[in-house]
Design goal:
The protein is mostly beta strands and 489 residues long. The strands form seven sheets. An eight-stranded antiparallel beta barrel has the order 20-21-23-25-26-27-28-29. It has four helices and 30 strands.
């Protein structure tokens, strides 16, 4: 063999030999000295690498800054051939801060047996830490004295592992934005709320994470939190039949920001029972309750309400307007081309929606007679914009094309009403009912209106409404049901 080639080959062997640590080049040797070490790996972005993910290039780290409250998995690996007898390893835990911040499972002992040569320490956080602190884990001993503690080197033994607790940023989101239901009583929908950085159960229990706009009745429960801190599974069960094919039923659940959690991504989950009968815009029920040529057109109403301790029908009225939409809206109907050939100045209205608003100025109208619901309310739109509900009612003609009757939906939404700029309330409204022509040209809308606010009403309150497109109508027959009363803002 050429002497130059021999020298080059020997040099390569020397280079390879000197670049490997003891635990690298002896792994395939039958005479390997077994050793145990922490084997915590991260991706290039610093995210912990968890089974079944693998990496052939990552090097175990001795420290990790944790900014999450989900369970942290810390693997410990025994480098050895298959074990004839189980091996136990003891580790200790200490912290520079509050020991109640975390817990570890197992508490102090790991077990290796057969070909199972990795065990895991699960570090849980049941309390949010206030100050930065460190949690240190140390491998102390094994049941086999022949097993070396730490790597077979001095520069990266990995016999200790330190978790540094940084500022935890927690958030939640809906992975799915909408579910469709058939609308039968007892029907269930399961949905998740995802927590990318985990959650602490006590924080979820103490601060409501949802607000609701309910167009139908349902119950809501959730699974036990268990050990999974990545998501919570909720179960929604319908409590009423939603079987009118001419109506759209919709409820919305929205994530809200709390002191410790920020709502991100998909903030709302909508549960919908869609209409089955397509709506013909030529039915145009909105035109029965609006007059675009009259800026002061009124609809008239009655609601069942408490006055001086007794329930009775109370009157109200409100300026009523069509809802302007663009030409490409599925419910658009052409109102006026303004006498020009230019399509850009055409006016389109939603054939199925109406709203309440002032003609001009900064005051408010009395949508749904809401001003009777409150004492000390402000009539300024800047403080109480909720008195002007610009898209309030949606109509669903019978069979999709009836020009005389159908169902009506109070469009679920949050409205704001207050007594001053520093004292306002978010109130969720919803409801449904029917409409029909009760005599020639006279239309009546009969529906239930629901208002939800925990502080004002202790939850949800509701009452019956009648609305008319003419001031001349027969007073509704008194009802034998309870009614709400004024609340002070």
């Amino acid at each position: 063999m050429n002497l130059t080639k021999i020298i080059s080959a020997l040099s390569l062997v020397v280079i390879l030999f000197s670049s490997c640590s003891k635990d690298d080049y002896r792994l395939d040797s039958k005479n390997i000295e077994p050793f145990i070490r922490f084997n915590f790996l991260t991706t290039s972005a610093g995210v912990p690498l968890e089974y079944p993910s693998v990496s052939t290039t990552a090097i175990p780290v001795a420290t990790y800054e944790n900014k999450s409250v989900k369970i942290l998995k810390i693997p410990v690996t025994l480098t050895s051939g298959a074990l004839t007898n189980p091996v136990k390893a003891v580790f200790s835990t200490s912290t520079s801060g509050d020991a109640a911040t975390y817990s570890v499972e197992p508490a102090s002992e790991l077990v290796f047996q057969g070909t199972k040569l990795t065990d895991t320490i699960y570090m849980s956080f049941d309390k949010r830490w206030k100050d930065k602190q460190t949690i240190s884990l140390k491998l102390e001993s094994t049941s086999d004295a022949e097993i070396h503690i730490g790597n077979l080197n001095t520069y990266a033994p990995n016999d200790t592992f330190t978790v540094s607790l940084g500022e935890a940023t927690t958030s939640y989101t809906f992975p799915v934005a909408q579910y469709l239901v058939k609308g039968t009583v007892g029907e269930k929908i399961d949905f998740k709320v995802n927590f990318p950085n985990g959650f602490i159960p006590s924080e979820i229990e103490s601060n409501p994470i949802f607000k609701f706009q309910n167009g139908f009745e349902y119950s809501l429960t959730h699974d036990d939190y268990g050990e999974n801190r990545n998501s919570i599974t909720y179960h929604l069960t319908l409590l009423e039949d939603l079987q009118n094919d001419d109506a759209r039923y919709e409820s919305k659940i929205t994530l809200v920001n709390t002191p410790n959690y920020v709502a991100t991504g998909n903030l709302s989950l909508t549960i919908v029972k869609p209409i089955k009968s397509p709506r013909d815009v030529q039915a145009y029920p909105a035109s029965k309750f609006t007059d675009p040529t009259n800026a002061f057109y009124l609809t008239y109403g009655e609601h069942w309400f408490s006055v001086n301790g007794a329930c009775s029908w109370q009157t109200f009225n409100a300026l009523t307007f069509p809802v302007v939409v663009t030409k490409d809206n599925e419910n658009a109907i052409l109102y006026s081309d303004k006498g020009t050939a230019n399509p850009n100045d055409d006016v389109y209205y939603d054939a199925f929606k109406i709203g309440f608003n002032v003609a001009t100025g900064t005051n408010t109208v009395n949508s749904f007679g809401l001003k009777r619901w409150f004492t000390n309310e402000s009539n300024a739109a800047a403080i109480s914009p909720g008195f002007n509900i610009t898209s309030a009612l949606e109509f669903f003609p019978a069979n999709g094309n009836s020009k005389t009757q159908g169902t009506v939906l109070v469009i679920p939404q949050d409205i704001t009403i207050g007594s001053s700029a520093t004292n306002t309330y978010q109130i969720a409204i919803s409801g449904d009912g029917t409409y029909k022509e009760i005599s020639n040209g006279l239309y009546e809308i009969s529906f239930e209106l629901k208002l939800t606010n925990d502080k004002l009403f202790g939850g949800t309150v509701s009452t019956q409404y009648r609305m008319y497109n003419n001031r001349v109508y027969t007073k509704p027959t008194p009802l034998s049901i309870s009614c709400p009363k004024e609340v002070t803002l």
